[in-house]
Design brief:
284 residues; 84% helix; flat
Amino acid sequence: MTIANVDSVDASPARDQKSRSKLKAKVKGNRRNAVGLALGLILPLSVLLLWQVAAQQHWVSEVFLPSPLKTFYSFFDMVLRQDFEKDFLSSISIVGQAFLYGSVAGVGLGLAAGLSPTVERFFGPTLDGIRHIPGIAWLPLIVLWIGIGSPAKIVVIGKSVFFPVFLNTLQGIRGVDRNYIELARVLTLTRSQLVRRVIIPGAMPSILVGLRYGASLAWALVVVAEGLSGMEGIGFLIFRAQALLMTDQLLVCMVVIGVVGFFIDRSMHYLQRYLLRWKQGFEG
């Protein structure tokens, strides 16, 4: 037997052991995901069951609490006969634009302020003052300036998205470990290399937290903005259903808002995990 054959024989058990370890880790991960999914379904299914029992036992008048089945039928009625998808797409469009403008401005200005104390001192007092005025409080004034259409809602929601993204970006940059900065200087990195290879990766976890929170906030605020000023969108449908006592349609809109909000948050969560796959943290 040659030396090459001996090496091949010796390497085979090691490869088999490595394959078995990977398989065990995959099975363990799938089992953990299944258990997590089952635990996550317990509470919503319990709420749904309680809702059904309350409707059947007439604990609450059907006018105020229709059954889940009636609400389910109402959803299809709204989709097939009332052009629900147009209102839904209108809300999605407003949220998408507001989140894009607010997050780009927040990250851009946050980077500038984090990298330059002069920029922070220049914008800081003004932004701190504006930040404490709720976005919805701006809506009447914005409507007077640019009308009742989508641009007014985009401006108000974009403003609300801007501040958490800006603050998390600024805090993320200021929170980069000083040792990394010193090491970069020892390695004689240029200013641009320092920003690209050290500061932005170090601040990325905080930036992504701000973006995730901003996305959820934008979706929540569109309901209020459309309800207070608008003739289309899910927010308008909610306020119309409340005024006309169409509780089934109101519940349909609430469920849709919750489901879409959940998927928005999950999407941002998986994006965060993908971009930070290099950063291992405590998982419980």
